[in-house]
Design a protein that fits this description.
By secondary structure, the protein is α/β, with parallel strands linked by helices. The protein has 14 helices and 10 strands. It has a single domain, classed as 2-enoyl-CoA Hydratase, Chain A, domain 1.
């Protein structure tokens, strides 16, 4: 019998700010990124939640599979402006978010329970990290997958270096991560960035079907297969750590301030003419 205290902790109101968590029959945990006023952007508390919840899910008895999605019109629009401003001006905040960003990636990779992501609309930032690191990623055709780091004036850190080259190849990864050009759900499936692409009105049905299939499988067989396959990602740990360090170094420079101002003013940024190194 499932230890109800574990699932009760996960689903307690306010336990994970920015996330709505529901436990369903069959051992399925549904995690919904929810901040509809800003297209499910992630503030400081939400970022902390996205980083920490996977360790708790891994330890929770009774959870057999996880479905993560975004509420309303999209998956997630990424970190909110206030969080980015705080990181660019406060070293303590920068160090805190660096650790959360590191933990988010490694906690998803090391979570033993299988994870399915259902991606629609904009999918950016920390939300994108979870969406693409999920064991099965299912995108609607209207999904707009975007790693927007370079547009802000910082290196593509988060999850990008650890998984994009493995999913879609180094050349495609370089193109999208260095130009900041978005990827539609259809194109993401074509290049191997996501597992499946479906019509938007079929997205949740397909995601739930896959999640149920994983939940109904042999827990040891499914989880141990995931563990072995994720060694491909663990081998890329040093590359990921470097990319994350360079991203956060960028938050101490001038380009992040110009990139953020350009986003707010909806104009093209005017970055430095050259890099110092």
């Amino acid at each position: 019998m499932a230890d109800l205290s574990d699932t009760a902790k996960l689903t307690a109101p306010g336990a994970y700010p920015g996330l709505n968590v529901t436990f369903h029959a069959g051992g399925i945990l549904e995690v919904v990124i929810s901040n509809q006023k800003t297209l499910n952007s992630v503030n400081d508390k939400g970022h902390q939640s996205l980083a920490g919840i996977w360790r708790d899910i891994d330890a929770a008895a009774g959870v057999r599979a996880v479905l993560i999605r975004g509420e309303g019109r999209g998956f997630s629009s990424g970190g909110d402006f206030e969080l980015i401003e705080e990181m660019a001006s406060d070293f303590t905040a920068l160090a805190r978010v660096w650790r959360e960003a590191r933990d988010l990636v490694y906690n998803v990779i090391n979570c033993g329970k299988p994870i399915v992501s259902a991606i629609h609309g904009p999918c950016v930032g920390a939300g994108l990290a979870v969406a693409l690191l999920a064991d099965v990623s299912i995108a609607a055709k209207n999904a707009r997958i975007l790693d927007g780091h370079v547009g802000l004036g910082v290196a593509a850190g988060d999850h990008a270096a650890i998984i994009w080259p493995l999913l879609c190849g180094l050349n495609k990864a370089k193109y999208h991560l260095m130009t900041g050009e978005s990827v539609s759900g259809e194109e993401a499936e074509r290049i191997g960035l996501v597992s499946l692409c479906v019509e938007e009105d079929e997205l949740l049905d397909r995601a739930w079907a896959v999640t149920r299939k994983l939940a109904n499988g042999s827990p040891s067989a499914v989880r141990w297969t995931k563990y072995a396959l994720n060694n491909w990602l663990r081998m890329m740990g040093p590359t990921f750590d470097t990319s994350l360090a360079l991203e956060f170094l960028g938050f101490t420079g001038p380009d992040i301030h110009e990139g953020l101002a350009a986003r707010r003013e909806k104009r093209e940024p005017k970055f430095m003419e050259d890099a110092p190194i």
